[in-house]
From TrEMBL:
Protein name, UniProt field: Lycopene cyclase
SUPFAM superfamilies: FAD/NAD(P)-binding domain (SSF51905)
InterPro entries, sorted: FAD/NAD-bd_sf (IPR036188)
Amino acid sequence: MNSQHRGAPDAPDETSDVVIVGGGASGLSLAHRLTATGSTTVTLVEVPDGPRRVPERTWCYWDQGTGDFDAAISASWPLLRVHGTDGAATTADPAPLRYRMLRSTAFERLVHSRLDRSPGARVLRATAETVRSTAGGAEVRCTAADARTLTLRARRVFDSRPLRALPPARTQLLQHFRGWFVHTDADRFDTAIADLMDFRVPQPRHGLAFGYVLPLAPDRALVEYTEFSRAPLTTTAYEAALAHYSRHILKLGAFTVDGAEQGVIPMTDARFARRTGPAVFRIGTAGGATRPATGYTFAAVQRQTQAIAAALRDGRTTVPRPHGRRALAMDAVLLRALDTGRIDGPDFFTGLFRRVPPERLLRFLDGGTSLREEWGIGLHTPGGPMLRTALEVPFLRRRSHPAPRIGESHR
């Protein structure tokens, strides 16, 4: 069942245990987890090549030891660095964790090769038009590249397509960015260190901005300009900010740009529905997997898809929360404090990296710390502004915000 469908117009219904809509990080990861059990038939619906297909993108996360996707990792770094607005650099060793980078093309190639070896899996290149519950399951109506239609029926459907509008929220910021893959004329990068946040860039009136550098070789790197604010910039403005950062702050000298990435990620305390019908579920960013205060998504997707695969194997019908309630509550407070300007964003994040043990801080950003550890981390944050915000947040009204064009996080 591995090959693409080439059926006639209005082809007969096709049935599998699970249909996954969307071939991004969450769709591919869930397809991999489900077929690895060998007990579930899976159809993965991916958009055909063309203008509606998302360009290649980058995903990053931290992990320890070896993992399922090591063969697709483009680079990894044992050390992390943060530059404050004062120019001072803090270099952290989060051992045993390493920061890892995946390119979507390599990840897709790896997962597809595994699906090709599974008799119960196939990849269908088509555009999902509608997803709805039916008696005893759900169905997905698809349109193939040649305009032929197909109805897929399944016991369960997992939908990872971006939402047309975000749910109401008390606070909504955007993490928006543009990055260059640069090639310098001389060796300029330390391949052991990833610069997570470089606050030496000019700061906007609202929110915060930082540079982000992932060295791929001594003379190659992904160099990015990122803002946390309420609205994205124009491509021209991103290009100007990247040029200033590359030439005047990083002092790269002569370089060429081999490629670019651009995206927008929601940073919101909205409540994302994980289930939209008896047999229809949302996963990935559409299901709330993006961490509200950081934009990181890939690691939460792995936890979520592993839990779904385990639940289906055990006969349960659940989609677990990608993030715990306590983590979401803390994020809601931080987003509000940043949005109101009660805390200085660069000082806040720089302070955490300077004062909190790096391995603990990364576990905190991943939602893996205990209440006692979080209390200790909280002592290194601005007490008055954070307390005032924490008392205010529960009484704020959730309201609709303009829906951005959401890009897949490379965090």
